[in-house]
Specification:
This protein is of the alpha/beta class. It contains 13 helices and 14 strands.
């Protein structure tokens, strides 16, 4: 008998940072927040997902979706989510799509648990057993100086084959941070530079002109996500452009791909439409010979889900000689929702992350810690 959905649960989470605020050129945060989505089946399996956005809002949106899925099989619920998404076009994308993302991911996790297969397995099979992580670090911290930045880079990039730093602070400040990061990483490790959309086109062009000597793997979000046309004015520079973390649903990526505006797309499973849209985007990117590196800045559930997705991404266009690995973003900032929410947190060892082979996304929630960080108790 096919398991049916018995209930849908949304749990708002918040972690207060103990080591001070951090963030990007766009601003800093003193806490991390997320919404855990759980799909309960009448066969006792529970699928888990994570939704981006203000937890109170997300909780209400997920609870609004829940009654529409009760009594459906997981497969039927995934189809119903498409209808719900289309019916909700008057609400726009944004947070409504983020809520659907959390539900969709939980359904895919449930499907894997029912089948006894990992998420990568049910998506189409594993392309790799381990993935290559980069340290997402170099955050902007109020009152810190370049010496503290150097110390932070030494501490947080150790053991990683590459690292990403936050810039967008002005040309002089950016170049100083980039040079320090390159000094710490040496010439054999990769360096990514993230502007978080904090530049105008002329500022981004000025930075692009300076990047050749620093061997930057990619320049991330040099412009606001809405400025698609502005990206076309950066194509003259020999620096790969990555973007997509702030885009909702697969549709805004279409122009980026068909016009050849980016080298790497970075959809986020907690906001783009869940695993379903992630899979579609992987196929779209493959058709246009563009790399995929999922954006990950959420909690442990988002990290585990993204890890499974990365394990599935085909080695396109390679056959026997893989020249560029799909990078796995590994946030190095303080965040208990990432480091403590799972019974067995995702960890880096020897410059690699092993992909769990357990059913679904391969992780379980630490219920005691969940009760500590939930804000609806």
């Amino acid at each position: 008998m096919t398991p049916k959905i018995r209930s849908l649960e949304a749990i708002p989470l918040r972690y207060e940072c103990q080591q001070g605020s951090y963030g990007s050129a766009r601003g800093v945060v003193s806490h991390r927040e997320s919404t855990l989505v759980r799909v309960h089946l009448d066969s006792a399996e529970v699928g888990i997902g994570e939704a981006f956005g203000p937890p109170v809002v997300m909780t209400n949106l997920v609870q609004e979706i829940g009654p529409l899925l009760l009594g459906l099989s997981v497969e039927a619920a995934l189809s119903e989510l498409v209808r719900i998404s289309n019916q909700g076009y008057h609400r726009g994308t944004g947070l409504f799509t983020a809520a659907i993302s959390g539900v969709d991911a939980a359904l895919w996790d449930a499907m894997g648990r029912i089948a006894g297969l990992s998420l990568a397995g049910i998506l189409g099979g594993r392309a790799r057993e381990v993935v290559t992580p980069y340290a997402s670090t170099g955050y902007v911290r109020p009152g810190s100086d370049i010496h503290e930045f150097r110390d932070l880079m030494h501490e947080t990039s150790a053991g990683f084959p590459g690292a990403k730093i936050k810039c967008g602070l002005g040309l002089a400040a950016d170049l100083e941070r980039i040079q320090v990061a390159r000094d710490v990483l040496g010439t054999d490790r990769h360096l990514m530079v993230d502007i978080n959309g904090n530049y105008t086109v002329d500022e981004a062009r000025s930075l692009c002109r300076e990047l050749d000597s620093h061997d930057v793997t990619w320049l991330e979000e040099p412009l606001p996500p809405e400025d698609i046309e502005g990206l076309s004015r950066l194509r003259a520079y020999d620096v790969p452009i990555a973007t997509g973390e702030s885009l909702f649903t697969r549709y805004p990526f279409r122009e980026l791909l068909t016009r050849g505006l980016v080298s790497v797309i970075q959809p986020d499973v907690t906001k783009v439409g869940g695993v379903s849209d992630m899979r579609a985007l992987i196929d779209m990117a493959r058709a246009w010979s563009v790399r995929v590196s999922p954006h990950v800045w959420g909690g442990g559930v988002a990290l585990a889900t993204s890890l499974q997705i990365l394990a599935y991404i085909p080695d396109y266009p390679y056959s026997t000689n893989v020249t560029t690995v799909p990078w796995f973003e590994f946030d190095r900032a303080e965040n208990g929702l990432r480091s403590k929410l799972l019974r067995q947190p995702i960890e880096v060892s020897g410059g690699e992350v092993v992909v769990p082979d357990s059913p679904g996304i391969g992780v379980e929630i630490d219920e005691e810690y969940l009760n500590y960080v939930r804000i609806d108790k």
